[in-house]
Amino acid sequence: MSVLTGIDIDTIVRRVLTDLNSVRFVSALPVPEKPQQAACQSLPSPSSSKQAIHPPANDILNLTGRLITLATLENQLNGIRKVQVSPVAVVTPAVKDFLRKKNITLERTKDSSNQNAPVRKIWLALHHLQKEPSLLVDDLAKQGDLKCEPFHCIIQTVHAAVDWAKMFPESRLIVVTSFTAAAVCLANRHKELRAVLGNNAAQITQDTKAVNANMMVMNPHGVSPYQLQDFSKAFLLAPNHCGNDLWEAFNRIEDRGQNHENR
């Protein structure tokens, strides 16, 4: 079984976005009106400084899109030394590797608006991990009020998740474990939890919205630390408000399950 590389993931993301036509990237740098102008930018010319839209000291590219792929950077990095993205933007691993090779700094800006603010409370469970995912922990700590707990039993992990969800119903819960199927199955037996599997950013967004999820389970093996960060961002940003009909169906299933247990 082959492992997807950062470029493979970037390509998949681009294709999904093209098919869905649901994501729109906006760059702070204006696009030239004529294609000939963009082509001429790469040619040395005594008057090239006159064609620059910003002063020569402005070598920062500010991207406001929610998802940053290699396509977002196309024809945008001429003379750029720093790329700025929003605090909640998902940056693909291929982009991070590309910028690193080009010696271009990737920086997240401070967002003073509360419109896209992440959830206030985040619960992170690390089940039976040999090494703590420090990049993920640090990133989540910047996005909300984080509580991180280690566990050695998946059953105890889910019980702790239930207790947390009871105390903080509006919070988001993330479980990192290699026992993903068991975690999702056990979690969804409790009315306080609606768990989804985290292995693809676009799918995480879709599933979280579809089932009103408040918990995500992801496997740290076979993916990079940057992918874990991207999966978490997609989960935290995804709306968790499913349709009324589906919500009523979930409640009926829960009621039947409780009645069966009480017999």
Structural overview:
The chain has 263 residues and is of the alpha/beta class. Strands 7-6-8-10-9 form a five-stranded parallel β-sheet, sandwiched between helices. Strands 1-3-5 form a three-stranded parallel β-sheet, covered by helices on one side. The chain has two domains: 92 residues, no CATH class; 126 residues, Ribose 5-phosphate Isomerase B, Chain: A (3-Layer(aba) Sandwich). Strand 6, helix 6 and strand 7 form a beta-alpha-beta unit.
Structure summarized in a few sentences:
This protein is of the alpha/beta class and 263 residues long.
What are its keywords?
263 residues; alpha/beta; Ribose 5-phosphate Isomerase B, Chain: A; 2 domains; 3-stranded parallel β-sheet
Report helical residue fraction: 40-55%
Biggest sheet: strands side by side, in what order? 7-6-8-10-9
Multimeric state: single chain
Shape assignment: elongated
Q: Based on the structure given, which CATH architecture of the largest domain is correct?
A: 3-Layer(aba) Sandwich
Work out the strand percent: 15-25%
How do the SSEs run, as a string of H and E? HHHEEHEEHEEHEHEHEHEHH
Number of strands: 10
- What's the Cα radius of gyration? 22 Å
Unreliable stretches, pLDDT < 50, 5 or more residues?
A: 21-57, 112-119
Write the layout of secondary structure elements.
Layout: H1 6-20, H2 35-40, H3 48-51, E1 60-62, E2 67-68, H4 70-73, E3 82-85, E4 90-91, H5 93-101, E5 105-108, E6 121-127, H6 134-143, E7 145-151, H7 154-167, E8 172-176, H8 180-187, E9 195-197, H9 201-211, E10 215-218, H10 225-237, H11 244-262
Helix pairs in contact: 1-5, 6-10, 7-8, 9-10
